Amino acid sequence: MNPIDFSNIEGILIDLDGVLYIEDALIPGAAETIEHLKNKGIKCRFLTNTTIRSKENLYKKMTRLNIPVRREEIISPLGAAAKYLRKQGNPSIRLEVMDETKEDFAEFCTTSENPDFIVIGKIGKRWNYDLMNELFSQIMKGSSLIALHKDRYTMRKKDLHIEFGAFIAALEYSTGKKALIMGKPSKTFYKSAIMDININQDKILMIGDDLISDIQGAQNAGIKGILVKTGKYRKELLDQSSVKPDLIISSIHQLASLI
After folding, report:
1. According to the model, what pLDDT value does residue 2 have?
2. Do 124 and 191 fall into the same domain?
3. Could you tell me the pTM of the whole model?
């Protein structure tokens, strides 16, 4: 692990689920820690791969949990995808996302027939062979694939569960075409957050519970990564991984004693 000079830190990128809260339960000390950081003048950006809530509903959830946050501090793959699509002119899109998050793409023309782009997020039990084959056929005919993220697993009720990144990998394997990844661990996503926070990357930390999306993604973008022992953290996953966090702490609450 590389040493961290906390006196040099001016900005922190913070994962949400598993770091600040787990489902609807606030992690002890999380809200107070964010308030402490902001009182110290530390800029915060909240990076999430969540695709089941719109940005507005994420903001409402965080304020309901008394986490001091501004809407513009939340950076999600939904916003990144919408921003990318705007730059493509007036593309047609196929949305495979939860109904709630469709509002973030309301400005675009949606179609299930030969879309320019297929946008995929979490859709739960709607995954089946017929859907995979339909998406496969459209990609082979020229549709581009946008994955809101490519996480391998998520956590529900204290257990790890497969995440839709597995289905994205299957589509990439079958079509021979790479998806454009909008969320973590995409280097582009992290660079966008660095530009938004407007601080040199050597003065920024990432804190998260996912070795790949949070720690490896941040390190690939030139940011030190702190792993918390909450949420997705599993010692056996850490022991078998080649990814080495720059620091491991018990929870985000410990950060208040370091900064």
Report:
1. 59
2. no
3. 0.84
